[in-house]
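User: Hello! I'm new to structural biology and keep hearing that structure can be predicted from sequence alone. Could you demonstrate with D-alanine--D-alanine ligase? Please show me the input and the output so I can see what each looks like.

Assistant: Of course. The first part below is the input, the amino acid sequence of D-alanine--D-alanine ligase. The second part is the output, the predicted structure written as tokens.
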Amino acid sequence: MSASVLVLAGGLSAEREVSLRSGRGVVHALLEAGLHAEVADVGADVLEVVGRGHADVVWPVLHGAGGEDGTLAQVLELARVPFVGSSSAACRLAWDKSTAATVVARAGVPVPDGVTVPHSLVRDLGAAQLLPLVGASVGLPAVVKPVHGGSSMGVVVVERSEDLPHAMVSALGYDPECRVEAMVSGTEVAVTVVDDGTGPVAAPAVEIEPESGAYDYGSRYTAGATLFHCPARLDDEVTARLLEQAVGVHVALGLGHLSRSDWIVDAAGVPWFLEVNTAPGMTGTSLVPLALEADGGAGAVYSRLVAAAQRTSR
């Protein structure tokens, strides 16, 4: 008898609409693979929704706060509900871009230099004193982004020192902390790592070529706004190094069934780690389904992950 899966989507974060589209994408792939699946739009009623259902496995695809930050995973762990994803501890680690960068760098993976600036520090010391120190430490051009969150919300590229204050205000509008990171130029790629219980394996890397030049929110979720190349157009040796490092990131952070890490490969062929997602987008324009389709089909992989969640819950 096929497993039944309840996909949790929606939530209350700024990424709610993307999450709902991801939920529909996962359900579509599971149904095509022959599983019973339905999506539920959840918020604070998540335990009530899960309790009403009779699913064998829950698959949370809530993006942003409340979903990727480990909160939902911890609720499901406490309720002893089998689910596809990473543990709450791993989610919390990956959710904090600064902490994740530190862990990944210690594992020997190249990470751009960066400084984490909390809003409280700007308030207490004053921007006039603090920002010149930040700019001098990281250098320009730089990328300013919220420490927590996804979908490129609040991310700004800064090329002039006078633009740094506005960029930080933008990022801090999404999160109490922002990360100012040295910008690495090169080819933007994403790597999906899957672990169905037999160990983490990287899918083909996806190269990202946005028509606007920036892979922002619009480029991510507007059909036709970005060209994708899968597998990425990289040298074989560079590709092998990238995939190996993506698996290394997955292992170093203790991630579970699925992750998607984002990278820049510079002109010398060095992959630089940017961040990792424990509940990546699963929409029609998302990178994980694209990578998995190139590797045999998303539905088959999703089915294996559901089976893995069932096994680990026994």
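User: So the tokens describe the shape?

Assistant: Right, they're a compact way of writing down the 3D structure. Reading them back into a model, for example: The chain has a mean pLDDT of 89.
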